[in-house]
Specification:
mainly alpha, two-stranded antiparallel ribbon, 4 strands
Length: about 250
């Protein structure tokens, strides 16, 4: 669980989400400070690169455990794209794989004590969602040209309903990056907050009676296991929805 060691001393469950400067950097009068969020994103990026290169460097015919894990992750994402996008999604495998692995490693790093959960920042999750939104929109126009506007009027809808259906379809399309980014942000933030709340009861209760401290301790252990599952699940959901949006751009419904 990410914790915060400054400000209010980390007593507030929300203090773990505080963004703080770790390196002061000014270039030409422009403040380019490096925050804890930037450092943990950088750490996640380095770990993803190391995971996908170092363990695959030997490419043994009989793979070891780590090489098997990397190959399994490749196959997992390849199957995800095949099931949700089809053969047309093959060229976009590097992007979906990178997106999934980056979010997964950010989520998992956020489970380490005294770390920082990058995906608990809505500006980060919305930024990722916005990249997906802009990317699939560009792909849609590149493939279909102005015909992509037909996406907002599903086939078979009577013409007299077009003035009602088109605004609804446009609104639902524009809200995609909001829902995509908000889902990841809300799940990680809520889970880590609950985890710290229950963990905060262990020491005060244990200082007087051991038995009452067992309940919050058991709840904390259970929530920790659940949070690890959610860390993977939310990366998976983000990647799957990205694949679905990509399919819509390529196939027009």
């Amino acid at each position: 669980m990410a914790t915060d060691s400054h400000g209010d001393g980390g007593h507030s469950p929300l203090s773990q989400f505080s963004v703080s400067k770790t390196v002061d950097l000014t270039v030409g009068g422009l403040e380019l400070h490096i925050t804890n969020s930037v450092l943990w994103m950088f750490a996640a990026t380095i770990l993803v690169i190391a995971f996908t290169t170092i363990f695959m460097s030997k490419r043994a015919m009989v793979p070891g455990r780590m090489q098997s894990l990397v190959e399994l992750s490749y196959e997992f994402i390849a199957n995800m794209i095949r099931d949700n996008v089809g053969s047309g999604g093959r060229p976009y495998f590097p992007f979906i794989f990178t997106l999934f692995m980056f979010i997964l490693f950010c989520n998992m790093l956020g489970m380490l004590p005294y770390s920082f959960t990058v995906t608990s920042q809505i500006v980060v999750t919305f930024g990722l969602a916005f990249v997906v939104f802009i990317g699939v929109t560009i792909i849609g126009f590149m493939k279909h040209g102005l015909g992509f506007f037909g996406f907002f009027l599903p086939t078979g809808v009577p013409g007299f309903l077009a003035p009602l259906v088109i605004p609804i379809e446009v609104l639902s399309y524009l809200i995609r990056p909001v829902s995509l980014g908000l889902r990841l942000f809300a799940n990680l933030t809520a889970g880590h907050t609950m985890l710290k709340v229950f963990a905060g009861f262990i020491a005060p209760l244990g200082a007087f009676y051991i038995l009452p401290a067992i309940v919050p301790m058991a709840a904390t252990i259970g929530l920790t296991i659940l949070e690890f599952a959610i860390a993977f699940l939310q990366a998976y959901v983000f990647a799957v929805l990205s694949c679905i949006y990509l399919h819509d751009a390529l196939e027009m419904h």
